[in-house]
Structures are given as C-alpha cells and as structure tokens.
Design goal:
GO cellular component, one term: cytoplasm
Keywords: Transferase
Protein name: Putative glutathione S-transferase
Oligomer: single chain
Strand content: 5-15%
Bound molecules: glutathione
GO molecular function: glutathione transferase activity
Structural class: alpha+beta
Radius of gyration: 19 Å
Distance between the termini: 35 Å
Shape: globular
CATH class of the largest domain: Alpha Beta
CATH superfamily of the largest domain: Glutaredoxin
Length: 317
Amino acid sequence: MLVNGVWQSKWDPVQKKDEQGRFLRQSSAFRKTIAADRIAAVKYGAVETLGVKLYVAYICPWATRTLIARSLLGLEKYIPVSIVDPQLSDSGWQFHGYPGSTPAKQESISYIYQLYTEADPDYTGRATVPVLWDTEGHTIINNESADIIRIFNHDLRPVHNAEIDLAPELLLHEIDRFNERIYDTLNNGVYRAGFASSQEAYEEAYNDVFTTLAWLEKHFGHSVYAVADQLTESDIRLFVTLARFDVAYYGLFKTNKARISDYANISAYMARLLKIPAFSQNTNIDHIKAGYYSIKELNPMGIVPQGPELDWFDYLN
Ligand SMILES: N[C@@H](CCC(=O)N[C@@H](CS)C(=O)NCC(=O)O)C(=O)O
C-alpha cells in the first residue's frame, strides 16, 4: 500500500482488522463522476472519446462489476480498458505480460499505484482496482465500483442511450436493499471468512455466507432475477461472487459447506446470466484461479488447483 505517496513493498492481503480478528475493507477515496461538459461533448459529437480509461483485474469481483456494466450498456467504444496481471506483485497490481492481460508496452505505467500517486502525491491507502482514470486531467475520477456502475448506467445515459436500465428509479429502494443484504454477508462475506484472523471471525463469516446462499436458493425458486422481474445492477453484484465461489472461495477461503453447483436454483440463475455475453465474456477462470491462489498468506506454495470442472464453463469462450 501507499503511505504518504510512498509504496510499502510488504503486501498484506488483510486490509484492516478489528480486535476480534474480523477483516475490514478500506473505503474508497476518489468518488467523483465524469465531467458533464465532456459527456455533452460526446453526445453532441464535438469529441469522440470521453477521455477516460478503466483499469481492472479479471480476478477482482469489484472490477468485474464495472466490466459487465460497461458491456451491457454498450460502452466499449467510449471507455477503453486496461487489464492488469492477475497476481498481486510486491508492488501491487502490475502489467507484466500475463496472457490475457494488457501488454506492458501498451501502458504508460507499470503499476496501478502510479495512478494513485499521480492523482495524489501524498496518497495513503491501498492501490485498488477498479480505477476510472481521467486521461486528460491525469487523475482518478472514481475508485469505487458501486459508484462506477451507476456513473455508467445513469450519468453516461446521454452517451449510450441503452435500452437497459440497471438501476431504474422505481426499483432503486429494492435494489439498494438487495445489495446491502448480500454485500456484507456474501460479496464481502467470503473475504471475511478467507481473511479472518480468528476462529470466531471465520465462523461468523462462514455462517453469514451460507445463510445468505440458503435465502438466495429459495429466492431463485420463484424469481428469475435478483430484484423484480428484470436484469439490474444487483444481478451483476451477485454474479461476480457466485462465479468465483466454486473456483476459488470454496477452497481458498474455506467457505466449504456447499458449492454453488450444489444449489439447483442458484445454478440455473447463473446459467441464465451466462447466456448473456456481457457476463460470460468478462469471466476469466484462468485469471481468477491464478490470482486468488497467488495469495501467499493463504497458499504459501502458490500451487493452483487443476479443478474444479463446472458445467457452466461451457458458456465461456
Ligand atoms: N471498494 C472497492 C474495493 C476494490 C478492491 O478491494 N479491490 C481489490 C481487488 S479485488 C484490490 O485492488 N486490492 C488491492 C489491495 O488491497 O492492495 C470497490 O468496490 O471498487
């Protein structure tokens, strides 16, 4: 992480913990949106690009939220993407030529932390992805995936004019309630289990994860989507965790009461989403495995398991 703009090379996957050994995630520091005049300039054809770039890791569920939203809304041609290597190096996320990542020679930076120090020379905190970067102002617009998907859906509507609305006004309350229900207990719940530093903290998180999965299994017995009867950002936020569960969390994070493939209704829901290219094309199993299993504190030998082999891999190209 960075302390007063200086990189500290000892990388610790535990962001913060409380006295009971519970994993605490850092809150995001850059929370702006894309300038309205730039959005208008693209809308009226005065300029072709928004002057932004999205930095992501395929391993990262939060970054993948932004990739899926970008694809669903048809923003590919307006928002170029740079994909870091899946393994965190001693200097954090890097471009170092891992297959499927953006080649280092196409990038003006080698490490993601360089974006943070350019945006704020005194920055203290972790250099996380996703980063929505301002290529003209040379600063970070936003580094919080929950904001970025709303910026894409709402603020960039004049640009994409998409039929789909990932957070319609009328459903907003329900969407927020669903997101909140799954964030702590599932999206971040698996991390709380994986990075717990006490037995109690692990068990608390493990129970939260499987209570929520049991609830979701019931929910998808009678619902096609997470909220109401249409695809929303809640589906994106749920999917990215489900897609990593059997592949990484079940083994590495010890959330091993059951696999997602043991839940018939959740599995059918995943298959429905994977038929949509925005979901399947932004799911990279090789990066997910290589990335999670490179976390030395949890897997000192760095051995990447060969399995599992899951039916839904057929949907990926
Ligand atoms: N609140 C952020 C969280 C992002 C985050 O934690 N990203 C992880 C990867 S999954 C990261 O970059 N970690 C690097 C680090 O902690 O040093 C968001 O949702 O955008």
